[in-house]
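protien #1 (seq + structre)
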Amino acid sequence: MSGCSVLNPFACGTLPLAQWVSEALRWLVDNYRPVFQLVKAPFDTVLQSVVSFMTSAPPLVVVAVIVLVAWQLASWRLAAVLGAILFFIGFIGVWAESMITLSIVLTALIFALAIGIPVGILATRFGWLYAVLRPVLDGMQTIPAFVYLVPIVMLFGIGNVPGVIVTVIFAVAPVIRLTYLGIVQVPEEVIEAMRAFGANDRQLLLKAQLPLALPTIMAGVNQTLMMSLSMVVVASMIAVGGLGQMVLRGIGRLDVGLATTGGLGIVALAIVLDRLTQALAKPRRRPGEIWDHGPVAALKRILALFKSSSVQASVENAKPYQLDARAEGTN
């Protein structure tokens, strides 16, 4: 070959990697398409349920639920800020698209957590598993997001469900890594103390390792959410609806206003999800502390006030009968 030499061995020939990958994908599509349709079914079921709920619920109900959750998890100040952001999403005219995007992100989060947390826990139990996973996770977090689209389209087609699948694949790595990291960083003294009191592996995991690793795991959940939101925008290229589709249409038409509106909706949604997960990851000094403030505490105080008022009223109503009974007794 021209230019082939000891100093330039690459000119002598290269591996036909692109051809191998294409042929492997065609073989999978030709021989295992029913398997991929079976894999697609649970994603479709969950996504349709979430989308139908988020799009059919009145906007004010969704805003109220998110505001109450933010108040319960953090403070009324955060609740007010998130409420203002949600009203901003509605008033710029992207509420329906935001709910579709939120549904896709939440569905991807459900499957990413269902896969990532157990895999992270297993990696702490079997050292060889993490040794295998580590280069795979490195590759998953390094490969550009666009590269995932081609095999997903060939195996699963286009639409919202393939968008959820590619989002799960793209965003599952942080929760695996941080679950593993959070558990292995649990102090050895705690583990030894639990072992000394006769705790088995299951009790050690549920009562010590997972509670102590929860802030780190929640950081992984936060990163998974943010990566899911970014991937949903990229996945709009395979006909995934929502805000990403608005941005893609704006870019295709050179419509700056449409692209800006969709982009602002994505930013607002990202802020809401980020603040909620950060509030959920906040360390608690004792179990149940989360219920000591917010709407639950306010409801408890109102119920206690009504209970004390009813008891006082019953006591006041019982006094005349007690006086009458005493008067009859003296007679």
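ok now protien #2
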Amino acid sequence: MKKTILVAVALLGFGISFAQEEVKSVADVKFGVKGGMNLANIVGDDAGDANNYVGFNAGFFVEIPITNKLTFQPELIYSAQGSKSEGTVNVEGTLINFDATLKLNYINVPMMFKYQVVNKFSLEAGPYVGFLTSADMKVKASGFGSDTVDMKDELKSTDFGLGLGMNYEFSDVIFANARYQAGLTEIGDSEGGSNDIKNSVFQIGLGFRF
């Protein structure tokens, strides 16, 4: 966990240093915090009938203006993701109903570019890298109770993808953000297992500038 945080902070610092070379005044750089709700799922040939999992995201960001309309925004975000599924299995002739919840916790480092389309409204796009901190599968079966299994060894420690979103400015301090994060790499890492799964996360929330 500590190593993951150090790597994520290093990436964030690299992004800030790179962008500041284009900034005319350090006073133009703004810092802030943001948070909101995740509507997450896993997709892919091996995802099965996975359903949405409701989680949350929270972290901080830096706004670095490149031009009057273009801003570079690196972020460091804790993100609770995953999926839910339910169904029936046949165990020695007995049908058993089950519910399964996959909980994936990441520290994500988005590197977003925001372009102001009109006053108070901007579009954003950019890559992200995610570092898996924990992964658990909780299964509840009728007549058998529930159990939780550690799935971290079955998944890759990093995730790469692309974020697309929009922002609306309520004021110089508060803004609303909606973003879709599409995982571009498979996150499964089991030998001979079902590895064709990717993260898919829709986020909505608020940001606050200092």
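The chain has a mean pLDDT of 88.
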